Structures are given as structure tokens and as C-alpha cells.
Amino acid sequence: DSDINGSRGYDELKARIREGKKLSNEIENYFRQRAKIERDYAKDLQKLVDNCKHKNELGSLEKAWRDVKTDTARIAQTHDTAGADFDKLAQEMSSFTDEQKRQSKAAEDAVQKLHSNLKSSYSKFTSQEKTFHQKGETHDELLNSIKFMENTRNTVVPKELEKARVKESKAKDDLEKNENSYKNLHEEVTKSKAAYESEMTKMCELFQTLDEKRIDHTRDNLWKCTNLESRICVEQDEYAEKMRQNIEPCDIDGDIQLYIKYHKTGSEKPPNVAYKPCRGRALKVQVDKGDHLYSEVTLH
């Protein structure tokens, strides 16, 4: 009766499938959110590169800075590609989960239909069983009553005994009809139960297969996720190494000389400035050595 009306094992299976769906949905959401994070990071990196517009540097440092920006843009592309790959993983999870839902629902619908048929048959069967047993008790009471009358024939009116026998005969016919109905319903509920159990077994086997596939598929996608993580790190490290290789040759003296070459104003100092005094007097002024511009002042 517990299998027919309750089916605790069926409820446990449904709970297992339900929890599996929750995890699949959670992992799918993780992939989608991770894809968004990667794309947003790629956009921010590219925007950062685009906003770096300084162009007045010369020499090896200018080249190193240009290469750093170029490789940063490549890192941005790596993350943008990773975002697309995480989207693919999310779509794979979604398609796989939808297919599992379709298969499990078809199996559940078939089992539910047979379960409803079984419950209906069992309800009719138990009702008929109760009626059949009541009819049997009624017939037994009539038989006992007739036996009692026959044992006390001297005190029983013959018509009463005849009436009892007619009543017993009708009760017997009624009992036999109810027994046939009871047997038919028993056969029906037996067949319904067998059909339900057969379909239930198929569904259990299907659920186990689906769960095995779910675990394997989820594990495979998580593995792909870690491969993506590794690829991002490897590519980013490769671009970082290129940056280091481009920065390392920076020549401080060479950059200074290059700047002087393009921006020098000459190799000679400006001429001394003459001081012209008033009243025609000449005055010698001692000037210290060094970088002073005025080495001689003449007064007139």
C-alpha cells in the first residue's frame, strides 16, 4: 500500500534529480557570470590602452612603452576570447540540462499516468473487497440462521424457514457476483501494479543513467573551465615576458643622446653681455670663474 499510494523511493529519486538540476543551473550561472567578468575586464583593459596617448617620448623607452600597450591590448583580447569560451560552456550546460529535463519529464509523465491508474484500480479493489467481505458475512449469518432453524424445526414455522432459505440463496448469488467482481478487480490491480512497477524500474534505470551522464558532463565542463584558466594564465604570462624582453634593452644613455640630437640648441654658450657705464669712465670688474655669463664689464 505504501508503494501504491506513497512511493517513498520515487520521491527520493525525484529529489536527487531536482538537486542535480540545481547544481547544473548554478554551474551554468557561474559560467555566464564568469564570461561577463572576462568581457568587462577585456573592455576595461582595451579602454585603458586607448586612453594612453602620450607620444612625446623618444628612443628605446618610447618603443618599450608602445610594446607594453600593444601586449596589454593582446591580453585584453585573451580575456575577451575567454569570455566567449565561458559563454560556450554555459550554453553547453544549458542544452545538456534541457535535454535531461525532457527525458526525465517524459519518464515521469509515463510513471505518473500508470501510478494514477494503479491508485484508481486499487481504490476500486479495496472498496469491492470490503463489500465482498460484508456479503460473505451476511451469507454466513443466513446459513447459521437456517442451521439453527433446522435444529429447532419443531419450534419454527415452515414458511419462515423457507423464507430464510430463499434469502440465503439470493445472498449466495449476490456473494458470487461480488466475488467475481472482486476477482476481476484483483486481476486489474495486479496488472496495473505490474505495469507501474515495470515503468518505475525503467524510470529508475533512466534516472541513474541521466545522473551518471550529468556527473560526467559536469566534471568534463569543470575540467574545460580549469583549462581555460590555465590558457589565460599562460597567454598572459607570454605577453608579460614579451613586455620584459622589450623593456630590458632600454638604453638610458642612448635615449639621452637621442633627445639631445633632436632637441639641442647649439654647442656654444651665448656671448657675454657688455656693461656700458655712464660718464665715460672705464671700470674693471673682477668676475669669478665658473658658469657666470658676464666675464668682463667695461664702464664708459
TrEMBL record:
> A cellular component term (GO) from this record?
organelle
The record, for SMART domains, names: FCH
The UniProt record lists the keyword Cytoplasm: yes
Domain named F-BAR: which ranges?
1-255
Q: Which SUPFAM superfamilies match?
A: BAR/IMD domain-like
Entry's localization field: Cytoplasm, Cytoskeleton
Coiled-coil zones: 161-188
Which keywords appear in this protein's UniProt record, sorted alphabetically? Coiled coil, Cytoplasm, Cytoskeleton, Phosphoprotein
- What Gene3D superfamilies would the database entry show? Arfaptin homology (AH) domain/BAR domain (1.20.1270.60)
Question: InterPro entries, from UniProt?
Answer: AH/BAR_dom_sf, F_BAR_dom, FCH_dom
PANTHER family hit by this protein:
NOSTRIN, ISOFORM H, PROLINE-SERINE-THREONINE PHOSPHATASE INTERACTING PROTEIN 1
Q: What is this protein called?
A: F-BAR domain-containing protein
Organism of origin is Magallana gigas
